Amino acid sequence: MKLIWLGHSGFRIEIAGQVLLIDPWLKGNPSFPEDRWQEAVAGATAILLSHGHGDHASNVISIAKEAGISVYCIHELSNWLSGQGVETTGFGKGGTVAIGEVSVTMVTAVHSSSVDFNDAPLYAGGEAGFIIRGEGHSIYFSGDTDVTMEMDIIADRYKPDVGILCAGGHYTMDMEGAAYAAKRFFDFKTVIPCHYGTFPILAQSAQPLIDALPDVDVRVMAVMAPEEL
Q1: CATH number, position 31
Q2: Residues 6+ apart with CB under 8 A from 68
Q3: Mean per-residue pLDDT for 211-223?
Q4: Does 227 fall in a domain?
């Protein structure tokens, strides 16, 4: 399995014959080198979209149309994207879809969700995270969230070995919150922080997370630098 961080909360995951783009915000993302757009999306087979905010969703229409691929997201956001001419698969929290040999389950997050990059803000059906299973891995992508008691159920039911956790603070849980969640609920082998460093208001270093999880492989990824798991 190969993971590539696209900056902020965006990831490219190559797993079980699929190339999944998660929240691929490329244009306008201060962390992403825009001249590497084609490299980031090459061969993509599906997009997973956690919610409608522009720092996650604003490039999804153009990427999906360009690649001719489907966007998997919550029902209301799926309906809106479909109206923009995008192929979509809408589902809900607790629901599971198959993308080839990869299983994707939508799970609870606590944040907010609107299409805030259009002419007028539009309710986008709620925020979510994902459990992605394939190649013997169970990956928890937290989406934008605070620490929640639902994480206890996610950990017990899906037993993720990899956690991709928002950790920048202000809009989501911070590094200390992500560390607390990892220790309180999960038994991760690998933790990858995201949603930090993009803007001055967010945490700029993952060191507090590293220091708090000495027995976990905390991967501080570089943008567009592949990591194998």
Answers
A1: 3.60.15.10
A2: 87
A3: 98
A4: no
Question: Quick check: is 225 in a domain?
Answer: no
Give the CA count within 13 Å in the CB-facing half-sphere of 156.
6
Residue written as token pair 């479909």: 82
Neighbours of 28 (CB within 10 A): 12
Q: What is the 3-state secondary structure (H, E, C) of 6-73?
A: CCCCCEEEEECCEEEEECCCCCCCCCCCHHHHHHHHCCCCEEECCCCCHHHHCCHHHHHHHHCCEEEE
| Total domains present in the chain | 1
Helix H or strand E segment including 97: strand 96-99
SS3 label, residue 103: strand
Question: Whole-prediction pTM value?
Answer: 0.97
Give a yes or no: residue 223 inside a domain: no
CA distance 146 to 131: 17
Contact 175, 206 (CB under 8 A): yes
pLDDT band at 133 (very low <50, low <70, confident <90, very high): very high
Decide: helix, strand or coil at residue 158: helix
**Distance from C-alpha of 186 to C-alpha of 2, rounded to nearest angstrom:** 22
CA distance 200 to 189: 30
pLDDT band for position 121 (50/70/90)? Answer: confident
Look over the chain and give the mean of its residue pLDDT values, rounded to a whole number.
97
Q: Print the domain residue range for 165.
A: 2-218
Residue 170 lies in a domain: yes
